[in-house]
Amino acid sequence: MDAPLRLRIHVSEPFDFERENGTADLLGSTLDHLDEAAEEWHVALDNGFTFNDEPYREMLVSPRYMGEHLARVRESIVGFPVRLAHRSEDGWYFAMTGMISLAPPPNDGRGAQEPKEDLI
């Protein structure tokens, strides 16, 4: 399967990320999951975020703990701990931590279901 993998990224540090962005959860997609040897995944975000008064539209995620692999996100129930990086002039800079989990596909309006009626 060569479809992009949809991810939900929950930023836990810095603690004021949610205050600055209105949410601690970001949604995005990556194709890096196709390379089983990839130690980091580049995630294109659906909506960007602001960090230190700078806007960003992408993130780099890597496992938070030594010996872990990002592919384990498929096995996790509540999320997989990661380090989060934003791009700086000198390359990627890891300044945040969080959790990633699988996200539902984006709602494009074509497959929207009508609310189900109560049968009682």
Please identify the structural class as seen in this structure. Answer: mainly beta
Domain tally: 1
Number of strands: 6
How many helical stretches? 1
Rg of Cα set? 16 Å
The biggest beta sheet, please? 6 strands, antiparallel, barrel
Assess the beta-strand content as a share of residues. Answer: over 45%
Share of helical residues: under 10%
Average pLDDT across residues?
Answer: 88
Shape: globular
Low-pLDDT windows of residues: none
Give a quick rundown of the structure.
The chain is mainly beta and 120 residues long. It has one helix and six strands.
Question: Would you kindly provide a written description of the structure presented here, covering whatever features stand out?
Answer:
The chain has one domain. It is 4% helix and 48% strand. It has one helix and six strands, in the order E-H-E-E-E-E-E. The protein has one helix at residues 17-21, and strands spanning 5-13, 25-30, 41-51, 54-63, 80-88, 91-102. Strand 3 (41-51) and strand 4 form a beta hairpin. The protein is globular and about 35 Å long.
Task: Give keywords.
48% strand, 120 residues, 6 strands
